[in-house]
Amino acid sequence: MRIPTFILLALCFSLQVAAKVQLPSIFTDNMVLQQQSAVRLWGFAKPNARLSIVGSWDKKAYILQVPASGKWNLKILTPKAGGPYTLGFNDGSLLSLHNILIGEVWLCSGQSNMEMALRGNSSPILNASEIILNADNPSLRLYRVSRAATLAPTAELKGQWMESTSATARDFSALAFQYGQILQKKLKVPVGIILSSTGGTMIEAWMSKNSLNAFPEVKVPESLDPAQAVHKEPTVLYNGMIAPLLGYGIKGFLWLQGESNRHEPELYEKLFPAMVADWRKNWGLGDIPFYYIQIAPYGGTDKTRSGPRLREAQLNAAKIIPNSGMVSALDVGMETDIHFMDKTTLAQRSAYWALGKTYGIKGIGYQSPELKSMEIKGDTAVLTFNYAPYLTSYRKPLTLFEIAGEDKKFYPAKAMIKANQVNVSSQDVARPVAVRYAYKEWVKAELFNNDGLPASSFRTDNW
To answer: Which fold has domain 370-459?
Structure first.
């Protein structure tokens, strides 16, 4: 029997009125709230009801009148790191969240090398068994956003905050887990890691429609074909996996993506800063830290130098994006596997940025050597570097430098380190004009500072 529409509407309305407060799944037991801040909460409650929200850390009651739509949001103040606490929501019916911690929250996002779980897939994770064995940590909480691709921003989200254990860590991002683990151990406060990542995706999928309006060459689809790889389409992951998180109190971002954009490095160099600016604007937390990991070298068959050109775009972005920092991955790549096994090194280097720059802990080096200037002295190009009072190759020969004259033809160069400089020359180039370092698809880093951080590949020309 067909139920009349007016009866269905009446039933829906009565259920909504009778229901308890409804919260997005980012607000669950075991969650971490950002410490010493005004964190935003939102959800649904009885229309026109008086909603009271109380945190056990200060017993302060935040009271608001729920709009007729039932949709509400407000901000509450959090104390210094601590817990566990409870958080109660009462609109006539009480909903309580338990085992809540106050601490530091980071969002980790990107594609497969960020997404890869400790258990690995067709590629293993280096030292995974030991990492999983030592994963029990009630002060580290993990939240993984389920994959969702939509053409319009959604409020829906699937996920659950979990305490870090061997079982929960096993299925969590190897890189993001270790990043959070290092922060928690060093800061000695609770840490929450939100993972929103999907393999095989281009940056356009993580960008909002508004942010892509300035790029007419990027076409946003009007519909999605379920038979196709819908997660690769522009805007869909932003809509399904970032938009539902907007406003949740976080300290900063960690990003690893770019492999899928190798074919368009010039466009990526414009899209990336636009994405960061849009995320920050929509989050409403100002220019909070945005740290990102440069793509690692991989393969040797591509003659277009798409890999080094994409790495170059990421290197240049650090000069454009305020309050950002780039981690060089030039020494962790694998020639025959884009899913490099060593996620530990990059988790450590990412944590160095957060601990040294964001948290201001003295003594932690976090910046890789960066070319400052080039001076031509006779037949030698003298390169001077920032963030490296001393450069090192760990007593190994430097083989990745190339040098060219006005004919734009590059030759393998002899390179010698002197403190924070590298002298580059070749018997085939009498009058140098340009130098390149590691500007190839597949390389293994040779130039480091004394903190063990590798210089990115770079070039002084724009040929």
So the answer is: Immunoglobulin-like (2.60.40)
pLDDT digits (tens, 9 = 90+) for 373-415: 999 999 999 999 999 999 999 999 999 999 999 999 999 999 9
Q: Are strands 137-144 and 191-197 parallel, antiparallel or unpaired?
A: parallel
CA distance 175 to 181: 10
pLDDT tens profile 410-443: 999 999 999 999 999 999 999 999 999 999 999 9
What is the average pLDDT across 208-216?
98
Domain 5-99 fold is: Immunoglobulin-like (2.60.40)
End-to-end CA distance of the chain: 73
Closest among 121, 246, 242, 255 to 176, alpha carbons compared: 255
- For 44-67, the pLDDT digits (tens) are 999 999 999 999 999 999 999 999
Kindly state the tokens that stand for 390.
């001393």
Strand, helix or coil at 264? coil
β-strand pairing of 252-256 with 94-110: parallel
Q: Pick the closest to residue 371 from 381, 387, 382, 385 (CA basis).
A: 385
Helix (H) / strand (E) containing 196: strand 191-197
For the domain made up of 102-358, the CATH class stated in words is: alpha beta
Q: Are 438 and 457 in contact (CB under 8 A)?
A: yes
Q: Do domains 5-99 and 370-459 have the same CATH topology?
A: yes
Q: Locate the domains of the chain by residue range.
A: 5-99, 102-358, 370-459
